[in-house]
């Protein structure tokens, strides 16, 4: 199958490489020349485990090319829309200008029978509007919405072996010829037993925002429990273990800490609330306002706890922040809780040093006023307090005795509740977790 992938960011670059791996002829298209130059040279423009190896592997087959011109989509039979849908500046709603530009740019190159397949996360109702644009320009082409559920840090595996495939198509019929054609694209996954659901367009759009809202709610629920645990001296990690043993609840996504961030959950729940408001259904989602508020409160809580750890004043205190990415195994710093905390501490007079195995270049672009160190040992040297804010394995594995020899004062705040408090206390550290005594 000849495929075009429009938008080669965290989602699209991985999607393009994986489609080529599955045997398709793929052209990846992006307006960002640097990204396209990197990708054409089999260099991943961001850190995603396995992506660079995959790019190198498929490059030798000749099945993956890149372009900055939408005209390169001509001749492909399936066109995936993977451009960004960030939060609008000063508003909760999603900015659809990139999706609109990509679709309007693409339609002149469509041929009869082509599929336009949206993967970007969009407010419900967008796909129906875009289907009309396709229909007006090329009545024999079809638009589907095929939301993406990959997790950064696991994106290659998630794309090659997704846990489900959702196809939204007008009318929601399995018999639609576009469904058979998209099945050919995903034949390997379908043969491997991946469940595939065919829905109407609004349902497919809602599946993605509902899933993200549920995950965000689960995280904020356990963080609310952490607030209560803090108030009574209980331990939220044991609480999560115990309630998580009920398989109706489940233990995953029940880790209390500094909360969620990244390029998806925060903006997706806000866009969902904004869209519900436009639809006159805002009451249905008022709980998400609380989910968002609990999440943002975590960041202030970490700042306050750090002040407590520093004997009541942050002024002039040397604080080392371990982690800048919004999650481990990624260099993505969009709405990163770790960086947001680091910046707040700096504003309040602390001297903040941030380290991260992969995300420092992105972090420095966003927060040039912070100090960055590549080597963990250098970052720890002479610290008055250490904050573990992104749970990279190397920070989980830190030796408290070796770290103690580097810092000025042995004080650690475990913002992800991943360290063993007894081990750190035994090595002479003052240990604080979140929602733990
Ligand atoms: P991103 O910002 O990393 O990538 C978007 C890319 O689109 C950029 O490279 C940008 O240059 C390009 N672009 C913008 N306008 C274009 C145009 N007119 N033509 C061609 N390229 C254009 O964003 P992302 O994280 O890859 O997310 C993309 C979409 O996928 C969003 O809607 C997001 O919510 C959704 N999504 C992302 C993830 C994830 O983990 N990153 C997971 C699921 C869904």
Quick recap:
This protein has 437 residues and is of the alpha/beta class. The chain folds into 2 domains: 2-199, 3-Layer(aba) Sandwich (Rossmann fold), CATH 3.40.50.720; 200-437, NAD(P)-binding Rossmann-like Domain (Rossmann fold), CATH 3.40.50.720. The chain has helices at 12-21, 33-40, 51-59, 97-106, 126-137, 155-160, 177-185, 187-191, 201-232, 236-244, 265-278, 286-309, 337-347, 360-366, 376-380, 393-396, 400-404, 421-426; strands at 2-6, 25-29, 64-67, 78-81, 115-118, 142-145, 165-169, 196-199, 318-322, 351-355, 371-372, 385-388, 411-414, 430-432.
Features:
alpha/beta, 14 strands, Rossmann fold, binds nicotinamide-adenine-dinucleotide, 437 residues, single chain, 18 helices, eight-stranded mixed beta sheet, six-stranded parallel beta sheet
Number of helix segments?
Answer: 18
Report the principal-axis shape: globular
Number of domain modules: 2
Uncertain segments of ≥5 residues (pLDDT<50)?
A: none
Structural class: alpha/beta
Q: List the ligand species.
A: nicotinamide-adenine-dinucleotide
CATH superfamily of the largest domain: NAD(P)-binding Rossmann-like Domain
Largest sheet: 8 strands, mixed
What's the N-to-C terminus distance? 57 Å
Provide the residue-averaged pLDDT.
Answer: 98
């Amino acid at each position: 199958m000849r495929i075009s992938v429009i938008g080669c960011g965290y989602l699209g670059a991985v999607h393009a490489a994986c489609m080529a791996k599955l045997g398709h002829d793929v052209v990846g298209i992006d307006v960002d020349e640097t990204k396209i130059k990197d990708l054409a040279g089999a260099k991943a423009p961001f850190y995603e485990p396995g992506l660079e190896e995959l790019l190198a592997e498929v490059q030798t087959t000749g099945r993956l090319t890149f372009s900055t011109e939408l005209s390169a989509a001509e001749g492909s039979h399936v066109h995936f829309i993977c451009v960004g849908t960030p939060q609008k500046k000063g508003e909760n709603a999603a900015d659809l200008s990139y999706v609109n530009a990509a679709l309007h740019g693409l339609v002149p190159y469509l041929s009869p029978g082509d599929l336009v397949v949206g993967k970007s996360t969009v407010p419900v109702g967008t796909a129906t509007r875009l289907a009309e644009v396709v229909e007006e320009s090329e009545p024999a082409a079809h638009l589907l919405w095929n939301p993406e559920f990959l997790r950064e840090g696991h994106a290659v595996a998630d794309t090659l072996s997704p846990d489900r495939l959702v196809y939204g198509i007008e009318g929601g019929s399995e018999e639609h010829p576009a469904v058979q054609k998209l099945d050919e694209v995903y034949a390997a996954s379908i043969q491997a037993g991946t469940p595939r659901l065919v829905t109407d367009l609004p349902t497919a759009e809602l599946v993605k925002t509902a899933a993200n809202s549920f995950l965000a709610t689960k995280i904020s629920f356990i963080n609310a429990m952490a607030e209560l645990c803090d108030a009574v001296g209980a331990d939220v990690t044991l609480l999560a273990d115990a309630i998580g043993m009920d398989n109706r609840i489940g233990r995953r996504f029940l880790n209390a800490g500094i909360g969620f961030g990244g390029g998806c959950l925060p903006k997706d729940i806000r866009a969902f609330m904004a869209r519900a408001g436009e639809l006159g259904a805002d009451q249905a989602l008022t709980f998400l306002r609380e989910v968002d508020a609990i999440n943002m409160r975590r960041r202030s809580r970490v700042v306050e706890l750090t002040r407590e750890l520093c004997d009541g004043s942050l002024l002039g205190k040397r604080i080392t922040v371990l982690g800048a990415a919004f999650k481990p195994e990624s260099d993505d710093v969009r709405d990163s809780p770790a960086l947001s905390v680091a910046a707040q501490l700096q504003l309040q007079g602390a001297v903040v040093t941030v380290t991260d195995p992969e995300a420092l270049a992105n972090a420095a672009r966003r927060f040039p006023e912070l100090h960055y160190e590549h080597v963990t040992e250098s970052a720890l040297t002479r610290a008055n307090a250490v904050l573990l804010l992104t749970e990279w394995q190397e920070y989980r594995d830190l030796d408290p005795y070796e770290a103690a020899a580097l810092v000025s004062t042995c004080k650690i705040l475990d913002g992800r509740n991943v360290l063993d408090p007894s081990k750190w206390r035994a090595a002479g550290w003052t240990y604080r977790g979140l929602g733990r005594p």
